[in-house]
Amino acid sequence: MQHQKNNKCYCGENCKFVAQQFHLKMKVYSLLFFTTCFVLMSQLSFSQGCSDAGVCSVGSLNIIQFKYEYLPAEKQHLEQMKAEDTELMGDTEDLPASRQGTANYTPPQLKEKKTDPAIEPPTKVSASIDTTAATDYSPLIHYYKYAKYSFQFTAQYGIGDRSTSILISELAGNIIIIKQKLFGQVKLPYYFINGELGSVNGVGDITLSLSYFVFNKNRVNISVTGGAKIPTNNANLTIADLPLPMVYQTSLGSTDALLGIKLSYKKWDFTLGYQHSFNSIGNQYLHNFTVENVPSYNNYFESNIMKRADDAVFRVNRNFKFKKIIIHGGLLFIYHTANDDVTNASGERVKVNGSKGLTLNLNIAGTVPVSKDFDVVFTFANPFITRKSRPDGLARKVVIIAGVKYNLFKN
To answer: Residue 195 pLDDT > 80, yes or no?
Structure first.
């Protein structure tokens, strides 16, 4: 009998090991698929630079999540924590399905701790547990605590129309306004642009946003985001009194409203966004004269007094976790809802044919924790499908973003 029992235990451990290896291989294969697609498409077309426009990367709509602190139950000091600061969650995702069950129980940590009556943490938790070994609770109970403040500095490199190099240094700050519910964000970029027409630099558009978590429970949360993009100039920078096309502008020149909603379910994120531009811009670039020694001056899209059409955005991405490193891979759909308007050399308002349509990007992003407070973040983007005409100057052949993030956890 003892021999049979040992054989059964040995088989169970082997099955668990095989299952873990299978899940690991699936993660690796999925990540390789996204990476291969990214490399293959990198030389084929231009993407729309979403981070320039705003709505794709604002607040909770960003592909990289808000930072939270992972707190195993055996390390809890519940008497020092406020109930509204934490969210109690069961996590049995890595357990084999045959070992998962449902039961109500009181973890020893909660039985033994004497807490302040004003805090009143829950004494019973419903979670999936291993009913064959109910004495091991440590993998099952986790507390998540969002950072009170976070500050992120990133450097973004992109290649625009006619191989124009665009470097953006951006500082972003996030703050919790209402615990576990309302987050505020401010983003301030600075542009360095260099190409065949010359070099310019300057402060980019300021982005302000609020993100509200409507539903935030175990493995499922829904957030809504509203914000505004505020121009820092009228998008009419010049070199030697020559109007420059939009790819050389540090601002889009318009005041925009940003709206979106995001659903996160287990390892998947689904995002819908919309960006509305309220005004025409002051750009004066036209093909109405020839510039000596600059034969390529008229090879860009005309954007004189342009009125940008609205953008509708949909993104789906999957999250992969390798120990502490988190990788996000997915597709970003940006639909320009109408053709943009410009004023031609005769003073007439005309539509830019081909500026309406779909841009489809492949995105890969990641977070590498250096410590509890510091992360390294990165993002890559490349296109599958592009619009024929892009007078807004947001075309990017490749986008690479890298930076550091500081998270301040404070009661």
So the answer is: yes
